[in-house]
Queue: 2 jobs
Job 1
Amino acid sequence: MRNSFLMLVVLLFVFQLYGQNTDQIVTSLSEFDGANVPNTDTLFNSEDGFQDEWSHLTINSDKRINKLLGISKEENKRDAGIAGYRVQIYQGEKNKAYDYKSEFLKSYPNYNVYVLFKTPDFRVRVGDFRSRSEAIKLKKIIGKDFPGSFIVEDKINFPRLKTN
């Protein structure tokens, strides 16, 4: 969400630059606190506004935008996952949780199984699904063996890339 907002701000800024001449751009940019504005004469060299369309585009931005992008990048590294869905098949005691995990893996070895501890219970969750419909498909498949299962929103692992 934050990345989308930052990209929107940068794009709006670029479109603002596109619609003004260079004198107006330098004047409006120098009003920003701490902004260093380089010469933008290379952007508008021809009579119709652009030389070679986008090839000479220069983006002048506030230094604080780069700082925010760096903070966002660090937060994404720390999260180690993306929003998604899993199917929870058990919640309760530790020993039973690991029994459920091994029972599930015997019948369905192609799915990732996670045992999580959230006070006071252990939870067994299955799969890494980007959409709820994918989780519903698994729930229908395992419904006979695990009738009390249900879908939960969770941080999921990044999908594995297929290599040839």
Job 2
Amino acid sequence: MAMAVDEQLPVTVPAELAQAIRVAVAHGDYASSNEVARDALAEWARQRETQAQERAALKADIDRGLDDLAAGRVIEFAPERIAARGRQVLQRRSR
């Protein structure tokens, strides 16, 4: 199995963020500023993957809905039901 190779990338951050990184390292939250950056980028990658999965699920839902519409499988439009379902989704996401 091939070993992963680290690659250096120059990154410029605002002064306030640089100070926050230095504080986190000084407080012992991280061993180095590189560790802060790796942790932050790993979280960014996880968020992007989650967003991609959510978009794919939404597209699948839309495609199913369009298929249902084309096949005549429809129900009466009820905005209250839609709003209630939206609130449920938001509640689940906020947990």
